[in-house]
Amino acid sequence: MEQLTNYFGQNIKDKRIVITGGTTGIGKAIADLLVSLGGRVLIFGRDHEDFKNAVADIKQQFPNSQVYGTPADVSKKEDIAKIMEIVDNELGGIDILINNAALSAEGITKSTYEDYQYVIDTNITGYLAFCQEASSRMKIQKSGHIINIGSMSAESREATSTIYVATKSAIRGFSTSLRKELNPLGIKVSLIEPGAVTSDMQKSSKAEQQEKIEKLEMLKAEDIAMSILFCLSQPKRCDIVTMQIRPHLQII
Q1: Residues 68, 116, 127, 164: which is the catalytic one?
Q2: 4 falls within a domain
């Protein structure tokens, strides 16, 4: 049997990787892990300071890393074009897309039209747009892997976040259909649905989130990054179609 050290992560080196929302939380944890394995990683997010800090932190951890990007908003067509220009001119293409940028949202009764339109543009339209851009390049090389980060909210459907539930339910359905469309072109599609994860999207404080981690009621962002590495490490013959990761004591 093949040694695990020769299996997990060995195919990441020199891969051209785009992580939407890669400057904080889950996205940053994914970037750290894939950069550490030799991936050429492009990250971006809306906040200029977060982007600057993320790139500086990666370069401090991994001085020889190849990290690219710019501040950008997935809901803006012109920003999507800006990112894809970097993909073409600096990365030289794309092998892996990790769609991660998303916003939390409250119930429909507490939101305005403008509130939920922006969430939809980010959580759904942004995913679709980057999948379209990535697949148009991947199909030429007859290879690639798209990972969409969904949420267990698509299953638990809590009453307090109906707009967020709607967007993550859409990503679940989209990912299932997208796999059927892209698999014949040599492109893998995986859906990762985390439960509660520490992040700036959570309403609770960092101290409260740490307490939940210790109580096994919340995951670390690094837990999701490792799950994604498992997906990416599979041979061509093997697809991880859907993966759900939840805290041990998060009862959904």
Answers
A1: 164
A2: no
For 37, the domain range is: 13-245
CA distances from 187 to 65, 161, 249 (A): 26, 33, 35
Q: Nearest Cα to 94, choosing from 53, 46, 124, 138?
A: 138
The Cα–Cα gap between 15 and 39 comes to: 5
pLDDT reading at 1 higher than 60: no
The pLDDT tens digits for 141-174 are 999 999 999 998 878 777 788 999 999 999 999 9
Classify residue 163 as left (phi > 0), alpha (psi -120 to 50) or beta. Answer: alpha
Q: Tell me the H-state helices in 62-161.
A: 77-86, 113-120, 126-141, 153-156
CATH number at residue 68: 3.40.50.720
Distance CA 10, CA 12 (A): 6
Q: Are strands 144-149 and 40-44 parallel, antiparallel or unpaired?
A: unpaired
- Mean pLDDT, all residues of the chain: 93
The closest alpha carbon to 192, from 231, 220, 156, belongs to 231
Q: Is residue 88 part of a domain?
A: yes
Query: What is the total residue count of the chain?
Result: 252
- Residue 8 within a domain: no
CA 51/CA 57 separation, integer angstroms: 10
Assess whether 127 carries a catalytic annotation: no
Residue 200 has pLDDT above 90, yes or no: no
- Domain annotation covers residue 5: no
The count of structural domains within the chain is 1
Contact 149, 131 (CB under 8 A): no
Pairwise CA distance, residues 192 & 119, whole Å: 19
